Amino acid sequence: MYIIIIGGGEVGSHLSKILLNDGHEVLIVEQDAARSEKLADELGSIVLRGDGCEAATLESIGAARADMLVAVTDDDARNLVACQVAKYRFKVRRTIARVTNPKNEDIFKILGVDVTVCSTQLILAHIEQELPSHPLIPLLKLKTGTLEVIEAKIPPDSNLIGKKLKSFVLPKGSAVLLIISKEKGPQIPTDDTLLAAEDEVVAITEAHNEEAIKAMLTSKK
Amino acid sequence: MKVIIMGCSRVGAQLATEFDAEGHKVTIIDVDSYSFRKLPNTFKGTALVGSGLDEESLKKAGIEEADVFIAVTQGDNRNVMACQIAKHIYRIPKVVCRIYDPIREDMYRNLGLRTVSPTKVVAKLLREQIEG
Hints:
- The complex is a heterodimer.
- By secondary structure, chain A is an alpha/beta fold.
- Chain A is 33% helix and 26% strand.
- In chain A, the strands form two sheets. In chain A, strands 3-2-1-4-5-6 form a six-stranded parallel sheet, sandwiched between helices.
- In chain A, strand 7 (136-141) and strand 8 form a beta hairpin.
- The relative contact order of chain A is 0.10.
- In chain B, 42% of the residues lie in helices and 20% in strands.
- Chain B has a six-stranded parallel sheet with strand order 3-2-1-4-5-6, with helices on both faces.
- In chain B, helix 3 links the parallel strand 4 and strand 5 (94-98).
- The longest helix of chain B has 14 residues, at 76-89.
- Chains A and B meet through helix 4 of A and helix 3 and helix 4 of B.
């Protein structure tokens, strides 16, 4: 695949090395003179100094035949525009943007970016996993539709403890995919699987059911 | 009208001053409070420190009741992002975006934004002075 990477910082340079190793054609666009020179010394002629948001720059590197554009500068606005220029002007099939403000993830999707990656959100999810006050964590939003994969930990005082999974009536259109128990590790559940305190339940559901599931899990004995 | 101006550049300050003098409700946003020195003492509107790219500062500026949103920061990308948020997320009736780069301006105009490219406009005016 021909992959264009906008931004030759830490993320961009590591990304490009891995993709090159995997046999992809990679081109990095970096605006800063010193940084692009350093990268070119290391990686050769696959580095172009330029503004990845400018149509002229993207034109000069044959963006129209690119399979993917990945914008990983540290500036959300720049990443958005690079993806939009690629998408709307050069019809690049897949665009991926790095975002730092978690709220921009939804906005970028509305504005046409195919995939967003937010390190702030990823770190937050890990922190929330450790906090008892957040019994439910959205793990993954599916690209199309409103389904999402969530993870929830059964609190020690939940009235579900000791009950069979089938007594845990999920909202319509949801399913439990996996139960990770402290003793037995991950297991694919059946209707008769018993729920225990601290079990982690991975389920797929509609996003709007989050609150209902949370209430169900935290309802006390 | 309730007018939000993003970027207290020379153009931003000029627009804010004019709208304010005409009796409109003006809020001007800039990341640097030092930029507000360009506003006259008579300015009755609100000057707000913020980026205009995040929900907090936009809501503080009253984006939910705004009739007009104008983005005139020095950065094309910031202007484009803020204007798209104002238009597509908050459904502001009139959104105008300054984009220096004529090619980018062309693309965003085709995508439905109201845009002005100072590069094109000034070049045209200068030519008219020479040729006219």
